[in-house]
Amino acid sequence: MAELTLVRHGQASLGAANYDQLTEIGFQQARWIGVYFAESGDRYDRIVCGSLARQGQTAEALDAVVEVVEGLQEYDATDLPNAAGFHAHPASDRHLHFRQLRETLLRWTADALNDAPESWVDFPARIDVALAKLAASERTLAITSGGVIATIVTKALGVESSRMIDLNLQSRNTGVTRLIRLARGLMLNLFNAVPHMASAERAALATYS
Q1: Is Hydrolase a UniProt keyword of this protein (predicted)?
Q2: Tens-level pLDDT at each residue, the chain (209 residues)
């Protein structure tokens, strides 16, 4: 059986001029996930990441050769809400951020955002193209983002695309998701696990952005 392990990037810089950078907490989360994989003894035929800075910065903690694969990058977390009429807000108001993001994604998946930088149809389609590039490997580890992971899991479960939103919004930074590739398609084996943050001290630094 072939395995596809997906890891969400570390915490990004919500509210900063450039969201696409890890915070200090994000870098710490990345170091923890790097140590976890190093100590697990797991071996991967291929380690890849998306083209975003936060994905690459997380991948650097794995201390391995990492290949950038186009298609594993997240939807645009700035322009998509702007297309929904929401604008930048302080990082301190995280409740507002997630309410607005949920509304944005509901409208996006319903094809109700006329000025979206990427359509809902195009987003899962380019993820499928990226997955096809990885299909030949027996064991692949991919550093990507919450929306990408949620979209892949939604397809594996065979549920309606709008369920992607719930999965996306509960995705933890550096959470580990694993799928098994069978002849009939992908089967979910593990979702959003953070074994590298099991202690109370580390759990206090769990984040969702």
Answers
A1: yes
A2: 699 999 999 999 988 888 999 999 999 999 999 999 999 988 899 999 999 999 999 999 998 999 999 999 999 988 888 888 887 665 667 788 888 889 999 999 999 988 899 999 999 999 999 999 999 899 999 999 999 999 999 999 999 888 999 999 999 999 999 999 988 889 999 999 999 999 999 999 999 98
What is the spatial distance between Cα 2 and Cα 71, in angstroms, rounded to a whole number?
A: 20
Domains of the chain with CATH codes: 2-75+120-203 (3.40.50.1240)
